[in-house]
Amino acid sequence: FEQREGETMLNAFTRAMATQLIDTSKFDTRFIFCDEKILEDYINKQCENSNKKFVLFIDELNKLKGNYNNTVRLNNFLCRNFLDKENRYLVVTSHYPIELFVETDSGRGVVSVDLPFSYNEKVLKNMFQQTTNVGDAEILSCMGNPALLYSLKTNQFKPDEVYQVFLNRNFYNIENKPKDKDASKSGVIDITNEKMINTYKNDLGIAFLRQFIDVLLNGNVAVNAKIFNRFSIVDENNKICFPLMYISQILDKTWGSGANKDNSYDILIPVIERIDNIVKGIKILPFYLCWENIIEIAILLRFINTHITGEIDPFEILFHVEQIHRKGINVTTAVITDDIKTKEDAKIEMDRQLESINPHTVVLFKVYYNYFPQFDGFIGYKDKEGNKHYYGYQAKSGKTKVGEVVREAPPEWIEKAFLFRGDKAKRKRTIADQNPKWRIYLSTEAMKNILGTSLAPLYPSIKYFLQKKEELNVDNVTKTTTSNKK
User: Fold this and answer.
1) What is the sign, positive or negative, of the torsion defined by CA atoms of 405, 409, 411, 412?
2) What is the three-class DSSP state of 354?
3) Mean pLDDT over residues 23-46, rounded?
């Protein structure tokens, strides 16, 4: 769908529609003009003479965007011809979420079918030839979206290239673009407006990042961040979710080291780079190690949010810090190399690294020794007075016995310890002799609150749930399609 110079959206739409009803070449379509009244009369006669139903199918409705003045005539045309008349049907697909408000006294019927999702590799592998391998990590990276997985596995596109093209078109290339004086009245970012683009370019460091992180954690549809929605998926609760592959691309190329210098957010570049490296590494990891990395991303996103908004982190590490001081807290990452194999040696290394870091800084330490005791990583905090505080976390999945983990007392220098269980507990329970320093996240609700909206679908209990369903010959794709039909 493209508008010619000086052509209204309605003119362009009727022209495109007319070329579907008559034989034309691609060359002819550039010179055709179609009067809306003639088109309406043609459709009416076709339906009246043959008593046929008329279905208009619009693929990617999101292409028809603009301010009110530019779209109102097209809206009226579609309503008049495809929503108000009997035996007329309008079928659309969209990359953006659509909110459908239907009045109770309306005679119109609305059927909505969401994208199918599946985390079952056996189901997803049916899309490919038998020689094609589909791994857990690839499914996670695509958030169980069959279309996205298929596009990647068949080399139809690369996420980094797709997002870079989007940035070049919408932010870094504004020459020779038409201006729209009414863009600010539409309530939607108009990326063809040069003045607005310059405003948003200068604002990418804060306003966009704040709202994008809010979308990742809470699924809220933010006005500024709507421009990124084309890379998102809508979950079963109508919340916006971003697949892992696009979370890393959007963060890195918009605010990280891969961004235009005017937009890069230097203070968070190490954190954004760490998230990007985790996502790239996940593609080759087994499922249980993916879970540890997902937890690491969740912790980093939570502290980015604290840095921007001053909101308390869910671990309450900064609970005693006033909100005005939480906002702007430094966040960074560090590693404990695989030659460090004990907790005491890890503390010595963390002490050393925190010495050279500015006060009021949170550091996420990743442990690299595979058999490190008790913890998968540490969170260090150097307060304003220079005092050091340490917290440990453990990300378990599978058949790990929770009691064995939380009965063991953490070292004295650990103020709190967190256990993030990767598959939900079968029943609510208390654990005898649990050490008081441990904070346990077992339930689905508790884990999803930590992960946030975009990472919650990756909660590994989904995998076990689907495997159980598979035994009953019910897979997620079939289940989703059937429920939508109902």
Assistant:
1) positive
2) helix
3) 83
Please state, in angstroms and rounded to a whole number, the distance separating the CA atoms of residues 100 and 423: 35
The model carries a pTM of 0.73
pLDDT in tens, 44-80: 988 887 778 899 999 878 777 777 777 889 989 998 9
Nearest CA among 163, 55, 119 for reference residue 290: 119
Question: Which DSSP state fits 279?
Answer: H
Where residue 268 falls among pLDDT bands split at 50, 70, 90? Answer: confident
| Alpha-carbon span 423 to 460, nearest angstrom | 6
CA 189 to chain centre: 19
Say which residues have a Cβ less than 8 Å from residue 42's Cβ, sequence separation at least 6: 21
Residue of 165, 162, 159 whose CA lies nearest to 248: 159
CB of 181 closer than 8 Å to CB of 284 = no
Q: Do residues 367 and 375 lie in contact, with contact meaning Cβ atoms separated by under 8 Å?
A: yes
CB 211 within 8 A of CB 229: no
125 Cβ neighbours under 8 A, 6+ residues apart = 132, 134
In angstroms, the CA 83 to CA 198 distance is 39
Distance from C-alpha of 344 to C-alpha of 107, rounded to nearest angstrom: 71
Q: Which pLDDT tens digit goes with each residue over 177-187?
A: 334 433 333 33
Q: What are the tokens at 148?
A: 């996205």
pLDDT for 468 equals: 45
156: buried, middle or exposed (CB in 10 Å: 19+, 13-18, 0-12)? exposed
Instruction: Tell me which amino acid residue 210 is.
Output: R
Contact, 452 vs 218, CB < 8 A? yes
Burial of 41 from C-beta contacts in 10 A (0-12 / 13-18 / 19+): exposed
Helix (H) or strand (E) holding 299: helix 287-309
The three-point CA angle 442-448-454 to 5° equals: 150
